Amino acid sequence: MALAPLVVAAAVVMTLSMSALCLKIVSPANTTPFMPTQFYSDDPAMTLNGDRCGSWASICNATGAAEADVSSTWIQIQGVTTGRIGLVQRLYSSVANCHADRPYLSVTLNGTWMALGDTPLPHSGGFPVQIYSSSATGGYLVTTDDANTAGASSNVTEALNIACPCGGTWVSGTQRLLSFCPALSCKDTTWLGGTSGGGFNGITIGDPSFGWTQTTVGNQLTLSALDSSRAASANIDSDNTAYTAAFVAEDSCEPIVSEWGCSYNLG
Fold this sequence. Notes:
Layout (H helix, E strand, L loop, with lengths): L14 E3 L6 E3 L27 E9 L7 E8 L4 E11 L2 H5 L5 E11 L11 E6 L6 E6 L11 H8 L12 E3 L30 E7 L4 E5 L5 H4 L7 E7 L20
Antiparallel strand pairs: 1-2, 3-4, 3-12, 4-5, 5-6, 6-7, 6-8, 7-10, 8-9, 10-11, 11-12
């Protein structure tokens, strides 16, 4: 099975757990669909710009890819030019599995983000950003579940053991925390939203990643695929995106000045 790049979408229930890792996003057993009500934006008009602060979601989005035909995504971004980012991506083998919240791959990113300028990049028109997820911020929490794949040939756990063992072994139904990978132990990071192809490097887990974001008049956030090289990220075009999600709700958007903790403004 080929690992498909992450594409957005979202359904099922999401709650925000403001505990030790303040942007940890969890999904409880209750799967009644709902839309989050508290998020952050300082630009309600959402004209084409670099404004990222807010809560974004895409629900049970059919991608058409053979082994990742439905996906769900939630993104929370805090801070005007720098702050925290929390992202959940789930891949499903069918719309029915999405509605029942039976993903075969779940990825949660806890990290920080930083704007790298207010000049659009020439290849995409997006605004450059750095995203950093490490052991200090929570890293990547990943769970596979082969019971929810489309068929015997769709063994996502086996595929990850080949593409990204990351110094360990993937076991279906067991969550792993990735905050660092030994050299050459994660050659394919497209499933984490990393770049692929000639001239790109993908994500180096534990190091900063670079890409771009863009918001549109239609209240949509686009986050590009990410690359470990800032220079290479400038060449990521508008077709090479990892996530696209709709704006959910607006609240205050205050600068984040505290360290990773829980002492930020919740509106």
